[in-house]
Amino acid sequence: MKKKKIIVPLLVLLAVAVYFVVFHKDKNLRYIPENADAVILIDSKKLTGQYLFSLATHPSSWSGSDAKGKSSASIRNSGIRIPDFLQIFHIKDTKFSEWYSVLELKDPQQFIAFLKKQQFTDKGNNRFQKDQFFFMIEGNHCVAGTSDSAFETIKKQLLQTSSSPARNTDEFIQNTLGSISFISGKKIKNFTIELNDDEIEIKNNSNLNAFNSIESKFQKGDQFLEMELDQENIRNFSRFFNKSIADSSQATSLKATANLEQVNDTIISYEYDDNFNEIEKKTFQKITQPNYSIEIQSKNAEKTWDYFQSKKWINSENQFTAIPFQPNEISKNNNGVVIKSTRKPVITSSQLKENYILIRNSSLLYSSLKTLSYTEKKIVSDIDYMLYGNISQNYWLKIKAKKGNLPLILRW
Fold it and tell me: Would you say 97 and 154 are in contact if contact means Cβ atoms under 8 Å apart?
């Protein structure tokens, strides 16, 4: 009887501990500014649970998990307080590449030591940088970003305001590993993020039958890039680069195909001999460039051509200079304009009349990305293809990895 009296309370305490460690989550989002127009949430506890389950069901990874375990432990021992939901946001009217996050610190000095160990450069005033990553430490908080241009604004809005309103996770995420949400006034469009064994899916509709039919059409292809977009999709994507280009160009649809090729690039330099005579010196290097064909259908081909000329994108040799990969030529027909590289012709596939962007991986692609670290190159080389699809108000993005012995969460 005495043993039962001891065991029962212990089991209750254990159940309570498991609940708070695994299931209980703080749903208050305190670090999203009012002028954020996009938010990414990652459920840290769900991610940890998925990792531990994958680790337990793949014994072959146990012997090779030391490095990853040490990396994970180093982050947990870096002085950061791991949040239940990692909050990453984009601020309205800033560059698409600028994303930020605010983290709480258990020990600021320990975190500074961690950054220095990771070879971050101390820029003074508790600011640190390594490549495209920036950190600013403010008391017991850290602002992280792919830029530091909005650090002061974030500090004033989120860290120096005692009554900063908190949002709730239920606005953005519903029992998935992650979410990405786009905010326009009071309207929020939510997309789920799911990490599977060999793919990452981002979507706003669980019915994937229509998207699977699009994907099946590309199983036997070998083009590096294949794309078809209607007017609405052109408008959506052009917002990342130039808000007016879609309407000003009168474009109603776009179809593009591209392949990669390694070519010899000639570099001409000059030296001087002892008599100060100029001597031309040629050196050669191999570079990766695309061969491509882009067909833009337009409401009015003349207006499209005039718009490109007004932007000075067409030179006297009828080359489209907005595309840096030369040589190419642009021509006009009754339906719109066509831009083609001239080095090698590209065979275009038949029109599917769907909205999609397919990018297949290529050894020429990741071998030319010399600025990436070893880990980043390994991730890129592991990707098989990326496919975006849109049908009506339903959107879907799949990042498909090559088949491997381990799921992605253990590989990456």
Answer: no
Whole-model pTM: value is: 0.82
- 229, amino acid identity: L
Cis peptide leading into 345, omega within 30 of 0? Answer: no
Q: What is the pLDDT of residues 257-268, one digit of tens each?
A: 999 988 887 777
